[in-house]
Design brief:
Elements lengths: L2 H13 L7 H6 L5 H29 L2 H14 L1 H10 L3 H16 L8 H4 L9 H7 L7 E4 L3 E4 H13 L1 H17 L1 H9 L4 H17 L3 E2 L8 E2 L1
Antiparallel strand pairs: 1-2, 3-4
Helix pairs in contact: 1-10, 1-11, 1-12, 4-10, 5-6, 5-8, 8-9, 9-10
Length: about 230
């Protein structure tokens, strides 16, 4: 699942005080595949409860925190080349340089990415992908799409991920691994989105789409009740 974005979306949804369930936003969402998407969401929910949650619980029980951190670092490190390329496509040479430095430092000094000395050196991470690059260049998201196993997406992001996989499957594997790690770190909060919502499908869809907009705009969002966007 692309649980990474759903996990990050939790903060946006909570900060917007229920905006994820806003009826006007939901009614305007481009979701012609809603019937199919609802079915896939239900399938993914069953899969999470029957397979992923028990595996994550067992992993967290038997794995020391330091090892979990090393796994998280290694997964994130694999996505740095995609961040560098995607940032360049957005004209963001600074973040492209940061991602390149992070990959080189963490792959060498950090022993293949198991450590994160780059952050200690002040080289901060801001993940980007080809879907975000397309969005920053004005490409519309297209219809909302829920993928089996991978979860919420849209046509634009799916195309970006497919292109990434064709060019080099390793970064895409890193993205998937990062998604699982983020799910392990935010398991209870992610599940609470659906459990506490009147319509779990709409709650998950809006959480994903709002966080997607947040990422494309690099943290510049308009919170409900405020005229000006707030930098995050």
């Amino acid at each position: 699942m692309d649980i990474r974005k759903v996990a990050l979306a939790c903060m946006v949804v909570m900060a917007s005080a229920g905006a994820a369930a806003d009826e006007d936003a939901a009614s305007e969402r481009n979701d012609p595949l809603e019937t199919l998407n609802r079915f896939t969401t239900g399938f993914n929910s069953i899969l999470r409860g029957a397979v992923l949650d028990p595996v994550v619980d067992f992993y967290q029980f038997i794995t020391p925190d330091d090892i979990q951190g090393a796994v998280s670092n290694a997964a994130s490190n694999l996505s740095e080349p995609v961040t560098a390329i995607s940032s360049l496509l957005q004209g963001d040479a600074e973040n492209a340089g940061n991602a390149t430095q992070r990959f080189l430092v963490n792959s060498t000094v950090g022993l293949g990415g198991l450590g994160d000395p780059a952050t200690g050196m002040g080289i901060e991470s801001r993940a980007e992908d080809l879907g975000q690059a397309l969005g920053a260049n004005g490409v519309d998201t297209g219809p909302h799409l829920v993928l089996p196993l991978f979860g919420p997406s849209n046509f634009r992001d799916a195309v970006g991920d497919i292109a990434t996989g064709i060019a080099n499957p390793l970064p895409l594997a890193g993205k998937a691994a990062t998604g699982v790690v983020h799910y392990a770190d935010n398991q209870d909060t992610i599940n609470a989105i659906g459990n506490n919502a009147l319509d779990p499908y709409v709650a998950e869809r809006e959480a994903y789409e709002q966080n997607l907009e947040y990422e494309v705009k690099n943290g510049i969002i308009a919170l409900p009740g405020f005229d000006d966007p707030a930098p995050q």
